């Protein structure tokens, strides 16, 4: 029996190289991981500029108290640049974002100005007011985004503001999905007595996509050695990671371990956790292999704990685990010491702070318990039963 953290460390140690980089147009790179540092080729903003619509002046020309009367030398349109210099007694009408003219150091906002023919009456503002300094956002040469950063929408805007139309990112890890079991039937086809529709391949398909990887659906394979062997070899050929569900328990039809031992390398782990204890991990050729449990909750949980960090590491990410924090349990929870237990929880923010309760019955076949949840409740190995009011660790479900 191994601990969850040890199992995570061992699967991550199997990933040595991230996927190769590819160049994508910026607009198609959402959620991808940067394969290189992004440096600013110039200062942002590239010049001192006005933060408001108003009048660019020399601060020394303003009166306090009282209003200064200055001559308007030019009305500068957006995108235009004033070649001249603002001399004493002069003002330049300026738009938000327009570069400051030479000589001026302060902008009086439109609201504090009154135009009078060719002249303008200006109320006082502090010297330097309403001017955005060259390079105040980003300095030329600075690393604005590091290799391994995930491209969020704001980052895409930042890269575009530096003039780059495309970006080098890691390619999406390819993940082959296979359900095992003679009783498992494709949704849409008739279901005989004793059969169940395939839930896992669909949960896993979504989880793979949500993790930023590319699913390859290889369908359902019966509990027969030859077809299983053929399909697994095909899967390893097509993908960086092969995921199966079912067939890793100790039943007579649980063939995954045996077949894996023939065509690849397999470790079979009893992880000290609930749900999801049996987990097969290994390699087929160059591909990473995960034999996830058949029970729908367990397969989702094992994906989140062991597969997603591997997909993120393959994709070049630096942060491999989602954030966790504590919340106060509002109900009692049964907990056996000596294993890590994962309850499906409902987390809410109240006037008392973060509180969490379970979604109800927690059987590892009860997929609706996962659907109703917005977080996992993590109860560490040494812990026993939880009483209402005790703090517990939670991890929000983000997909
Ligand atoms: P196994 O480890 O293959 O014995 O599967 C454990 C349990 O999970 C059994 O009740 C299976 O019927 C169920 N199961 C296996 N594969 C799936 C699947 N793809 N979708 C839903 N339930 C499954
Ligand atoms: Mg089975």
Question: Which structural traits does this protein have?
Answer:
binds adenosine monophosphate; 399 residues; single chain; 26 strands; six-stranded mixed beta sheet; 19% helix; binds magnesium ion; 32% strand
Question: Could you explain how this protein is built, in words?
Answer:
Helix 1 (4-13) packs across helix 6 and helix 4 packs across helix 5 (256-263). The chain has seven helices and 26 strands. With 399 residues, the chain is of the alpha/beta class. The two termini are 30 Å apart. The protein has a six-stranded mixed β-sheet with strand order 7-4-6-5-9-8, with no helix packed on it. A six-stranded mixed β-sheet has the order 16-13-17-21-20-18, sandwiched between helices. A five-stranded mixed β-barrel has the order 22-24-23-25-26.
